[in-house]
Amino acid sequence: MSQKTLHKEAMKMLKDTSRTFYIPITLLGTTLKNTVGSAYLCMRAIDEIEDHETMDPVVKQQLLRTTSELLKEPFNQKAYEEMVAPYGDLLPEVTMRLGDWLLICPEGILETVQEYTSIMAAGMADWVERDWFIESKQDLDDYTYCVAGLVGEMLAKIWDWYDGTKTSEELAIGYGRGLQAVNILRNQEEDFDERGVRFIPKGWTREDVFQYAEENLALGDAYLRDLSTRRIKLFSKIPLALAKKTLETMQSGHEKMTREEVEAVVEKIKNE
């Protein structure tokens, strides 16, 4: 398959799998679009294993831990394909094609994308083993770091690699945590009904989770102030603005934003 075809298929997969990040990624220049697009698809690939509703937890752990190990070396696509082949009727295309998404990543940052995807896969396996049992705020911090704070940390390294942009690691992690906390609130009933999972510490109310989200989104605001490259800032502002608007929507008693509201937020930021 040619690189041109692979890039086209990766962009289509991004559009099919991400409501929040597809548009911001398309606004990046070619190098960053390929880098962040690759990273998103790799992490989405392992996320689909962790979140699978019917797959045996032991199988999930095995797949995630083996994937983590494969990502620590130059990626052995054949070994990965042989591992996931028996589960081709369960796993989505984005997971089956993990090796393809690595191929679109620029060579100079590929090792970083693999490293963070590897760390996330291992962490997800641990959470599957724990049955996502979250009892304390520390547990919640650990979980949101594993599935989202790591993304913020990785993005900080990508910006530095690209043009020397320096950001606070702590603020970048808070940015990721804030986005994940909004996802937890938005999907709370669905996660419990379909997976029997409740990502909320013992004794916490829904209002406590709103506060947790708001505190971390405030760190996201501070993170944005470190960014000066226009495309990087634009990419980062859109998910943060959508997360804030989603919080407002839920606090006013509605389940989610309308498509028109989403489009209005995006257009406003693009035109700033």
Low-confidence stretches: none
Give the H and E element order: HHHHHHHHHHHHHH
**CATH structural fold name of the largest domain:** Farnesyl Diphosphate Synthase
Tell me the major beta sheet: none
CATH class of the largest domain: Mainly Alpha
How many separate structural domains? 2
Report the total helices: 14
Average residue-wise pLDDT = 93
CATH superfamily of the largest domain: Farnesyl Diphosphate Synthase
Tell me the total number of β-strands: 0
**Fraction of helical residues:** over 70%
Q: Please state the second-level CATH architecture of the largest domain.
A: Orthogonal Bundle
Please state roughly what percent of the residues sit in beta strands, choosing from under 5%, 5-15%, 15-25%, 25-35%, 35-45% or over 45%: under 5%
The outline comes out as globular
Q: What's the arrangement of secondary structure elements?
A:
Layout lengths: L2 H15 L4 H5 L3 H21 L6 H14 L6 H8 L8 H4 L1 H6 L3 H23 L7 H27 L5 H18 L1 H8 L10 H20 L4 H22 L7 H12 L2
Helix pairs in contact: 1-3, 3-8, 3-9, 4-5, 4-8, 8-9, 9-10, 10-12, 10-13, 12-13, 13-14
Characterise the protein shown here:
The protein is mainly alpha-helical. It has 2 domains: 1-108, no CATH class; 132-272, Farnesyl Diphosphate Synthase. It contains 14 helices and no strands. It has helices at residues 3-17, 22-26, 30-50, 57-70, 77-84, 93-96, 98-103, 107-129, 137-163, 169-186, 188-195, 206-225, 230-251, 259-270. The longest helix is centred in the middle third of the chain and has 27 residues, at 137-163. The relative contact order is 0.11.
